Structures are given as C-alpha cells and as structure tokens.
What we know:
With 333 residues, the chain is an alpha+beta fold. It has three domains: 81 residues, Trypsin-like serine proteases (Thrombin, subunit H, Beta Barrel); 107 residues, Thrombin, subunit H (Beta Barrel); 109 residues. It has seven helices and 14 strands. The protein has a six-stranded antiparallel β-barrel with strand order 1-2-3-6-5-4. A six-stranded antiparallel beta barrel has the order 7-8-9-12-11-10. Helix 5 packs antiparallel against helix 6. It is globular. The protein starts with a helix and ends in a 10-residue tail after the last helix.
Amino acid sequence: xxxxxxxxxxxxxxxxxxxxxxxxxxxxxxxxxxxxxxxxxxxxxxxxxxxxxxxxxxxxxxxxxxxxxxxxxxxxxxxxxxxxxxxxxxxxxxxxxxxxxxxxxxxxxxxxxxxxxxxxxxxxxxxxxxxxxxxxxxxxxxxxxxxxxxxxxxxxxxxxxxxxxxxxxxxxxxxxxxxxxxxxxxxxxxxxxxxxxxxxxxxxxxxxxxxxxxxxxxxxxxxxxxxxxxxxxxxxxxxxxxxxxxxxxxxxxxxxxxxxxxxxxxxxxxxxxxxxxxxxxxxxxxxxxxxxxxxxxxxxxxxxxxxxxxxxxxxxxxxxxxxxxxxxxxxxx
Length: 333
C-alpha cells in the first residue's frame, strides 16, 4: 500500500515539474507541441512548423512569439528561438535516447489535437529502432495528433525523446508510436548540420513495416508534393483572409458557407452577395478576391490530379486539406 502511493506521488511530481516547460505551438494553420530546452529556445517536430518561419507559443502561464532558427527534416526536428524570452521560464533537462532500455517506463506530454493542454500518457519503451542514421524510441505511450513535438521523459523528468509519429502497422495491425531520440535534438542545439534526407523517419518506417514497392514509393512522393502545394497555398490564403476581413463588414450582404474559409464562397455560383452602394469599391474588392482565390483553386486542382495519378488516396488528400484549413465541398465534385 505504501509503495503504491509513493509511486503515484512520484509520477505526479514528475508531471508537475515537466508541464510548465511544455507549450502549444501554432505555425500558420498547423498546431502541435514543443518544449523549452533553454529559457529562450524550444524543440518541436519539423512537420509541426512546416514551411512557417514564425510561430506562436502558449504555455500554461505565458504567450510568446518565436522564429524557426534550425530545421532538420531528416530527423523531423526544429529549433525555435523565443522573442522577449522570460529568464525565469522553466525548461527541461536533456538525457539520451541511447540510455533507455526495453521495458523502461516513460511519459509522453503534449497538447492533444493541438489544443487540449496537459495531456499525459504513460507507457513503456518497446524497443529502439534505427532508420537511416536516426535513432527512434518505440513506445506504447499514446502519441496523438497535436502531441507531436512534445517531450518523452523518463521517471526523473529527463527528456529522452521527442514525440513524433504514429505509424500504421502492416495488414491492419495496431499502429505503433515513435519518438525521435533527444540525442538528435542536442545535436541541433549544438549547431551541428541538420540532417537532410529524401524521406522522413515516418516514411522510412512505413517502408520497413509495410514493404517498399514502386507503387508505394510513387504514392509517397505524390503525398509529399501535395503537402508542399498546400503549404504554399496556405501562405496565399492567409493574405486573402486579411483582405476579406478588412472589407467584408462594409461590402458583404451574405456569403455561402461552403468550406474552411469564408471567402471560399466565391467558388460557388451566386455564393457572394455584396451591397449595391458603399464608401468602398466593393465590386473591385470582390473581383480581386475572386482572382486570388482562383489561383489557389487552380493550383490545388492540378495538385489533386497529380496526386491521383501517383496513387494518393482521396481521404489522405482530404485530411491534409483539413489540417491546412483548405477544405471546400467542391474539391471532389
């Protein structure tokens, strides 16, 4: 009885020490988790920040702005520097993924779905895996969307990995969770050259588990290209968002709700109605929105067609669009 309660308190103490150093990361329309490794620096996943150069950071106590200073796609890690850092900001001690053993208890901390703070899951280390030169920690601790980029810590609260991915098993078997060993994060902090690779650790693992083939490789390349097109489109969409919001209150009578962004209404026949008279030239405003929106539509339609030719599943493309707030009811018509 005494041993059980001591263990429970010990786990709660570890979590209480770790949580103040964990933050939600918002990069454009994407969200994930990061954690402070110095009072002015955080680590997260490269796929969390995507192509964004600046991010918003939210801890339990403070908000910060930051910039991506180092990116390592080959290890799926990114280093963020904080503007106007608080010298008192708690940060975590870094250990080594090479020191963990199968059966060792670990704790994954993050923001599930990018918004649910203080998400803590406990599990054990199942194995250490190496893909190319990247050391990965396989664990049964749940790593869910939004948890990506959070710390995987041992029972001392020392970081041993960066929660990174869940990979589907072959033939419908249960997915497996992996963290990138913190050793790669330490190298990034020390200024070592980022690892560049044609494939991410998740892609390499999928090949290992499901078997590589010409078809699967083609599908993977198609998915990568589709994601790249979406990242470019998001930057243009943000500019349209700003222009739409600036004049819609003065010019707009109604707009059909047909997708993730209000101005997607311009894609629909008679989807937008504007006022007849206004202090602003609303016809010109709407025409410019239509022109800019058409550029995004043309790019995404072409990317979808290329994705289909490469064998990318429609559901995968739909999920990627939703992640980037670029879904519209008309994409699959």
